[in-house]
Amino acid sequence: MLELENFRKARQVLSEVIRPTNLVHAYNVNPECDVYLKPECLQKTGSFKVRGAYYMISQLSEAERRKGVISCSAGNHAQGVVLGASAMGVKSLICLPEGAPFSKVEATRQMGAEICLVPGVYDDAYQRALQLRDELGYTFVHPFNDENVIAGQGTVGLEILDQLPDVEAVVVPVGGGGLISGIAYAVKSLRPDVKVYGVQAEGAASMVQSLHDHKPERLASVATVADGIAVKEPGSLTFDICSKYVDDVVTVNEDEICAAILHLIEREKLVAEGAGAVSVAAVMYDKVPVKGKKTICIVSGGNIDLTILNRVIYRGQVKTGRLCTLDIELDDQPGKLVEVSSIIANLGANVTGVQHDRSINRQQVNACILRVTIETRNHEQIERIKSTLSERGYKLI
């Protein structure tokens, strides 16, 4: 049984290990509510996961420590386990899905863990870790479905009540449910009036589905840029806690996640991974009822793979109206490209790419397709460009 005293004990144990993450007042996330960010992306190892992993390992017996620990993770929990194990002189073996970001895999390896890459996603790595646990006699450090892990993660909830005593809502990323379980239990135990909302990616909405069906459900597959919360099935313990203490769990799509990552980089000067940004995406796009409320978004992690960051930024720019690609049908005559470019420039946008295609068969033999990529300010400017081009006789495809 979870008890608040265990959360306070975890906070004491972690006080000399974790990095303090003070709230950041984020005025620009949503003008209709007062938003603060809890930047766990600045935590040691770049994620909140170190809290639960370290505390759980600290509670092991001497016999368990001598045998070692094993865990599975998309990356962030793995680094938390290795940091905790290394600090206490405990051997660690980590099972990771083969598709885990290279940066997370290498960071885990460099911290001193033995790595076992498993084909598939997190849940496949989980099954392999259980198999190796039984074979080798290690203690399994569960990423979320463990009372001590939940208590460690719940120290985030204790901190935010100290940092913003009049908080009215807390928005939390959800994968397996360890973080939101800890936060919801701690917050609701001390301040039952505070709303706690969870956020999942549309492509990995296992907790949403489970709460809807009133029992833990396993998804056939998961696919999302938010790899840190790409979990097929929530834990039995975390499901029960969320059922009792969480007000609602919502979803955000890939474009909304990318836009939130872009916003955090540009406006708040924070680098967040997809899993860490879903809470901000939910508030940006009004997925949770926090209008007029003092709201804390937990930015749970910042370990984004640089190989996908460029694509994420591109998707974020398109979603927010900062980038636009137009296909224009026009007569293949000298000066037409200049005319189109002039219209765009006069409306304050910047052409960054041009593709001129004569090969497409159209009714007009002398017609061509001009594909123009444009840097813009917002969606309103894009619409002005489109309407002006149409008024000048250009056909948008």
Q: How is this structure best described in words?
A:
The chain is an alpha/beta fold. It is about 45% helix and about 20% strand. It is built from 15 helices and 14 strands. It has a 6-stranded mixed beta sheet, with helices on both faces. Strands 5-4-3-6 form a 4-stranded parallel beta sheet, sandwiched between helices. It has a 4-stranded antiparallel beta sheet with strand order 12-13-11-14. Helix 8 links the parallel strand 7 (about 170-175) and strand 8 (about 195-200). Helix 2 (about 50-60) packs parallel to helix 4 (about 75-85). The longest helix has 17 residues, at about 145-165. The protein is elongated and about 80 Å long. The N and C termini lie far apart (about 60 Å). The mean pLDDT is about 90. It holds the Pfam family PALP. GO terms for molecular function: L-serine ammonia-lyase activity; pyridoxal phosphate binding; threonine deaminase activity. This is Threonine ammonia-lyase.
Q: What is the fold's blueprint, element by element?
A:
Blueprint: H1 4-14, E1 24-25, E2 34-39, H2 49-58, H3 62-67, E3 69-72, H4 76-87, E4 92-97, H5 102-110, E5 114-118, H6 122-136, E6 139-140, H7 147-163, E7 169-173, H8 178-190, E8 195-201, H9 206-213, H10 236-245, E9 248-252, H11 254-267, H12 274-284, E10 294-299, H13 306-319, E11 323-331, H14 336-346, E12 350-357, E13 367-375, H15 379-391, E14 395-396
Parallel strand pairs: 2-10, 3-4, 3-6, 4-5, 7-8, 7-10, 8-9
Antiparallel strand pairs: 1-2, 11-13, 11-14, 12-13
Helix pairs in contact: 1-7, 2-4, 2-7, 7-8, 8-10, 11-12, 11-13
Concise summary:
The chain is of the alpha/beta class and 397 residues long. It contains 15 helices and 14 strands.
